[in-house]
Amino acid sequence: MLKNILQTAVLVVVSAAAVMAASTERWLHVRVESAQSVNAGVTINVPVAMASAVLPAIQSGDPHHRKFSLQASVNGTDLRAILDAIQSSSDHSSIKIDRPDKLITVTKLGDDLQINIAQKPSPQRHVTETIAVKVPIPVLKAMLGGDSEDLDIGAGLHALAQHGEVDVTIHKEKETVRIWTDMTSE
User: Fold this and answer.
1) CA angle (47 as vertex; 55, 169 as ends), nearest 5
2) In angstroms, what CA-CA distances link 75 with 24, 78, 137?
């Protein structure tokens, strides 16, 4: 009888540990919805740790396949210095860039950076296209780590397993793409 009680207790402890471990794992979700057809869409749900482990196995012609070069897009701007300044600023600090074709807003909220880009309507384009990004600053810092001019996606995924949630939504006239993380598998 004591043996059965001990076995049951061990089973309960192991089950509880497994449930607690599973509930602390972050999941990466990707959803693509297309307005072009009812069946057009993609949904992917994987643990962030798995995405991080699989990334080096993805074949690409680029020797820096886990990294993307930022050199052309920053035009000499020191992104690390900008990120440090944003991180040390107060909450709700924001930068607005109002261009004729789009409105860009960058806001710091706690440990997160929120970036919103809204394409303004024009005679050729009546539907507003938007991009909304929420990403933890420690994830951005990990991606910009080192002296390289490359954005290290692998380091970002590794940091993401530890820090907060990411939410990226791209809405176009005929398609919506959302990439986010949370603690659920679906």
Assistant:
1) 85
2) 39, 9, 22
